[in-house]
């Protein structure tokens, strides 16, 4: 019987098995979790000390940024990873977007199997129901308070008490930091590649071409926060040198090309004309050769990665 069970077991997904162990305080130890994760054949175990009520977990954020397609993130229990069902679903969605899997050793969740995905869908339905119930209870509470002549909201905030204002500021900062860490893997590599040689305007423009809606000021503020938390190099905030117009065009062309590598040189030239961008010599008509020169420069500076299958390299 044991032999047949082994024979029909689901095959291990291609990629690494990465364990994540967390305890809430420095006085606690991750040893028990490590033992279970090693028994599950984890190739790597990431350790973290942090409260379960907080999403500010640098080790987990770094793991999610660096995990690759085919890898599987493994925890001993769900509460070691997420603070709520909604948080758990966010993490799993982020893993799925990168082609990675998730498994909990003590819970029936393994996103590489149909049964595990079914359990996840049940959790999602429970989370949706929970949100609906909370919303209904909140509305009912507000209506009851109004009927009794009570004002809604925090009395401390209404009265501008310093301790309440300080607490609210801390909560807002924590929430901001959590949002920045959750999305950093999408834009921070580009910032690291371009700063400080390029301006925040150039980087924001390139990110927008890739579908990320950043303003230069919001981007600078986000990077400043990461630097203050020692999650990014302080050199990213250094002042940019003056840039000539051709460098701005190079960044713009790199962004257009990166957002759709299948565009031909002529199609990129037409796009620049629709944007009313002047050529490096000040003309209004773009030639494919001018676009190619800018793309070649972008490759040399690292803004565009070289690819043998690049359609824009030779099609006019």
From TrEMBL:
Pfam families in the cross-refs: Resolvase (PF00239)
Active site per database record: 24
InterPro entries: Recombinase_CS, Resolv_N, Resolvase-like_N_sf, SSR_resolvase
Sorted UniProt keywords: DNA integration, DNA invertase, DNA recombination, DNA-binding
Signal sequence segment: none
Gene Ontology annotations of biological process type: DNA integration
Record-linked SMART domains: Resolvase
Family statement: Belongs to the site-specific recombinase resolvase family.
Cited PANTHER family: DNA-INVERTASE FROM LAMBDOID PROPHAGE, SERINE RECOMBINASE PINE-RELATED
Protein name: DNA invertase Pin-like site-specific DNA recombinase
